[in-house]
């Protein structure tokens, strides 16, 4: 539902800026990263602008990328999934609303919701301020940790490259 | 998440301010056949909305159609296609109205200003250009008057409490020159360098402000002069829509369609008292509209509503139910979080007669959940017209 052309966004963002800042990298000081002391075992991206950070014990955090948060604008409401909900990869895990639009967020992998980021109920703007950290949406127990290596998901490098090619 | 993409940008028209939009970092989207800014780089949507309520916002609305109606039967023609009394309207005064089809449905909403008894200037919606043109050309054939789109003019809206002082500093007459220009009135003013602009005290935000028609050749320079004032920010379509929603105003295609009468749209005030006995001519859809006026027989009514709790905003076509959660009683026409009300979800809806009264509690369905709402009076925020 987003009424913003990604094409225009890219054109108006100097390329140098995109290259210099890994803005779609996971925030290292927040729970999705610090959940395990060694940090996540993998951070992957979907073509629909979700990120997933998986940890050794099969726990994973899901959110939307900085790129997506910027494109959406001020988040006014974040719809969170139900705890215990069982999801297939691609199932809706919630939505992010701005004044102008509502955008569905999809789970990158199959799993069960074990926690949601309640802070977003009071402070939806966390989605804009720190989408790759404080603005995480759901915590999952993923069904099959090996899925994270599947071809569907991209590395940070691949994701940022896909943004540049998206003309 | 899914991004809606728009292609074929090459076929889009550009307004005279297109280069300015790009220079200001406008996020350009296709709108009514034009490439228009939805927002600018300097502010978020919410910031730009609040800026307009507090200071002054500059909107490029050149995509709207400006036209002129001229001829001895201009009033007679307007009395067929609108329910408004244009015979008693003073020269220099404009009024909101609607173009009515033969069934009394709304072809478009419009601002019509009387220049003199035989000449009117008309502003209609960008998205309705084709249907309006076809409608007007068909309807006018039996009348001794001519309707023609105005070419080569830009239309800028300057809205917000600081708009009068900003514009006042750019016209020869100064700020005091605008003090006798009241809401709905339109006059020509000289800019300091001798350029003439047509200024109407009107807008689409609920704030005091102006809609200014200026030659394309002068538009860019004029817009830049307005933006040189630190009280002014360029504002895009996103805030234009949230501002008008809070002001309780209609957006064609949402609140108004060819199937909806002005009475159903809670715009009975557009049917002038002096038009209701038919002596000034019967307008299109007379029987249906006058039955709704006289017998309160409109089956549905446009209302405002607010959420009683949190939730995703109700959008166009979200269903509305009685509190039992099963009985469908209406549909949302527009809805979003309200920036001026701290993010409270508000909206406009069409509901069945009987559940339209202020304070009625209902439920709105968004995806698979239902959220409590209450019917409230519009506008959602106080208006500040200069009357």
UniProtKB/TrEMBL annotation, chain A:
HAMAP family the record matches: GcvH
Record protein name field: Glycine cleavage system H protein
Species whose genome carries this gene: Lachancea fermentati (Zygosaccharomyces fermentati)
Cofactor mode of binding and number, as noted: Binds 1 lipoyl cofactor covalently.
Family recorded in the similarity comment: Belongs to the GcvH family.
Subunit structure: The glycine cleavage system is composed of four proteins: P, T, L and H.
One cellular-component annotation, GO: mitochondrion
Primary localization: mitochondrion
GO biological process: glycine decarboxylation via glycine cleavage system; protein lipoylation
Automatic annotation (TrEMBL), chain B:
Positions with a binding annotation for substrate: 211
Enzyme Commission numbers on file: 2.1.2.10
The keyword Mitochondrion is annotated on this UniProt entry: yes
Keywords of this entry: Aminotransferase, Mitochondrion, Transferase, Transit peptide
Superkingdom of origin: Eukaryota
Domain (GCVT N-terminal) ranges: 17-274
Compartments reported by the entry: Mitochondrion
Span of domain Aminomethyltransferase C-terminal: 302-381
GO biological-process terms attached to the record: glycine catabolic process
UniProt keyword Lipoprotein, yes or no: no
GO MF term list: aminomethyltransferase activity; transaminase activity
SUPFAM superfamilies to which the protein is assigned, alphabetical: Aminomethyltransferase beta-barrel domain, Folate-binding domain
Residue ranges of coiled coil: none
A Pfam family matched in the record: GCV_T
Main location: mitochondrion
Catalysed reactions listed for this entry: N(6)-[(R)-S(8)-aminomethyldihydrolipoyl]-L-lysyl-[protein] + (6S)-5,6,7,8-tetrahydrofolate = N(6)-[(R)-dihydrolipoyl]-L-lysyl-[protein] + (6R)-5,10-methylene-5,6,7,8-tetrahydrofolate + NH4(+)
Gene3D superfamilies: Aminomethyltransferase beta-barrel domains (2.40.30.110), Aminomethyltransferase fragment (4.10.1250.10), Probable tRNA modification gtpase trme, domain 1 (3.30.1360.120)
CC terms in the record's Gene Ontology section: glycine cleavage complex; mitochondrion
Protein family: Belongs to the GcvT family.
Record note on quaternary structure: The glycine cleavage system is composed of four proteins: P, T, L and H.
Cited PANTHER family: AMINOMETHYLTRANSFERASE, AMINOMETHYLTRANSFERASE, MITOCHONDRIAL
Function of the molecule: The glycine cleavage system catalyzes the degradation of glycine.
The protein, known as: Aminomethyltransferase
Lineage: Eukaryota, Fungi, Dikarya, Ascomycota, Saccharomycotina
